[in-house]
Amino acid sequence: MNPATGALCAEVPAASADDVTQAVARARQAQPAWGALTFRERARALRRFSHRLMLDPDLLPILISESGKPRFEAEAIELFYTCELVRFYTGRAGRRALRDDVRHPFLFANKRARVVYHPRGVVGVIGPWNWPLLNNFADAVAPLVCGNAVVLKPSPLTPLTSLHIAKLWATEGMPADILQVVPGDGDAGAALVDHADMIFFTGSQATGRKIAATAGARLIPVVLELGGKSPMIVLRDADLPRAAHAAVWSAFAHSGQVCIRTERVIVEDAVADEFTRLCVAEVSQLRRATADAPGAPADIGAMTFPPQMAHVAQQIAEATSQGARVLAGGQPASDKAGNFLAPTLLGDVTPAMGVARDETFGPLLPIIRAPDAEAALRIANDSALGLSGSVWSGNATRAAAMARRLEAGSVCVNDVLVNYFCVEAPLGGVKASGLGLRHGPEALRQFCRIETVVEDRALLGFLSPFLGRHLTFPYNARVLKVIRWFMRRLY
Ligand code: NAD
Q: How far is the CA of 325 from the centre of ligand 1 (A)?
């Protein structure tokens, strides 16, 4: 369904467990040839494909129609990010991360250890509905660069972007079965977890835990990118107009359906009134899309997933019954055809309320007051989640020091969300926000089976037969004495 108009976009048959098994088998057969290409050959193919994707006239209309987001977010966030990720991983950073890495052991000067990065085989990428491109095809890029084949299972709410990309993959002459898309629901996802060699999952904690359990039983690696309750700490010396503008954008972009969004603001008491007033003024400026004019310029689009609207409404009702105050928005959807919710600001929120603790993932921003900076940090860290966050202060050094004490995978100083575009650096969740990483060379190497080959060094290798004779059977008491002498001096 098109969430902005309620119209039917398409009907897509769901892949059965058998379809998924067969897709994985085809991927496994095709992968060795892709894995045997040089890095440069794979990189060239992926860059060409990403260029083609960027210029494709149908991609963005499909993405917008199935997600309900404004064109700006589809193009300037999803597509731009995808192109940048491909540029980064297919360039020097990818080549360096994946080339053999030679290390020289301290104890055995006659040896060298060569670290080799092999593809793992078939990586199952399981995506959510909020980013049909950025957390679906784009998440296949790193595994593909490493030489893996990918079977991608998009969300049943937004499968059309991924299916369109699979069609382009075939028509653009990309290697068959190296990227396959299996649309379907949780059963198709579970079948993928049962058969792939590794899983890269983005979605909810509940599903993440199920996937981790199966992966644990199969002993396959998983990367889990889950939800967050990312705090924005606003200190008394912050640039308040800038902070308020950022709070409103990072809370309400894509109607709040953004994993690293600002889920709660914690503001120092001394500036809380002024900051709140500025946020209310910012919200009043937002242009909201409607079902009658879905193409009109708008900042706030539709909610992709109808049950998410009920969850937000329930959080608002619960918080207000406990004393929170609606400062902006708060009304139920007025537009019957589309899934629209007004951006809502809540004041007088206490850290104990559900809205301050549980992920919202919708257009609702609670503002919490803290007596001072240390209290703000304590409230921020008192969470089961740790995905992202930001610290705002006129003193950048102080803010950076506080950022280091925030328990999160990735934190911005005097900015928001931009960390997702810093693809050079790893980004992932701590605590219950996930396992493993996306971005940076660190993430790339997760998709590799790492093998160490220890071999003789060219010049000192002649020592190996001598050492091999004296350090193994038959054990010799005099050699042990020499080893002991060495140990005592070394350590
Ligand atoms: P979800 O867990 O409901 O679904 C995600 C995917 O998992 C879907 O494709 C779904 O069909 C599939 N799935 C469902 N059951 C499965 C099973 N048993 N085995 C395998 N796959 C299964 O999540 P969602 O509602 O689509 O996404 C919203 C969540 O995603 C939010 O919590 C959000 O914070 C999180 N998210 C996190 C990031 C990040 O980078 N950390 C990015 C985007 C979204």
A: 31
Is the pTM higher than 0.85? The answer reads yes
Residue at 289 is within a domain: yes
* pLDDT 10s digits, 276-292: 999 999 999 999 888 77
Q: What pLDDT, on a 0 to 100 scale, did the predictor assign at position 301?
A: 87
Q: What is the mean pLDDT of residues 417-446?
A: 98
Mean pLDDT of 443-464: 96
131 and 198 share one domain: yes
Ligand 1 test: best mutation among 259, 311, 431, 438, most atoms within 8 Å of CB?
259
Kindly state whether residues 322 and 269 are assigned to the same domain: yes
- Which tens digit of pLDDT belongs to each residue from 300-311? 988 888 888 999
Say if residues 260 and 228 touch (Cβ distance below 8 Å).
yes
CA distance 64 to 85: 21
> pLDDT per residue over 87-141, tens digit each?
999 999 999 999 999 999 999 999 999 999 999 999 999 999 999 999 999 999 9
Handedness of CA 248, 67, 206, 210 (dihedral sign): negative
* Ligand 1 near 203 CB (within 6 A): yes
Picking from 168, 201, 226, the residue at the C-terminal end of a domain is: 226
Q: Residue 343: which residues within 8 A CB-CB, separation 6 or more? A: 248, 251, 252, 255, 256, 283, 286, 288, 300, 328, 329, 363, 364, 365
> Which atom of ligand 1 is closest in space to residue 129's alpha carbon?
26
Q: What is the band of 293 on the pLDDT scale with cuts at 50, 70, 90?
A: confident
Quick check: is 120 in a domain?
yes
CA of 223 to the centre of ligand 1 (A): 12
Which residues are catalytically annotated?
225, 259
* Residues 199 and 320 both lie in one domain: no
As a whole number of angstroms, the distance between CA 54 and CA 163 comes to: 16
Q: Which pLDDT band holds residue 332 (cuts at 50, 70, 90)? A: low
Tell me how far the alpha carbon of residue 375 lies from the centroid of ligand 1, in angstroms.
33
Any ligand 1 atom below 6 A from CB of 250: no
Number of C-beta neighbours around residue 193 at 10 A: 24
Residue 26 belongs to domain with CATH number: 3.40.605.10
Alpha-carbon distance 332 to 310, whole Å? 9
Determine if ligand 1 sits within 6 Å of the CB of residue 210.
Answer: yes
Model confidence at 334, pLDDT cuts 50, 70, 90, reads low
Judge if the beta carbon of residue 193 lies within 6 A of ligand 1: yes
| Cα separation values, 196 from 6, 125, 185, 242, Å | 35, 9, 17, 46
Cα of 158 vs centre of ligand 1, distance in Å, is 12
171 assigned to some structural domain: yes
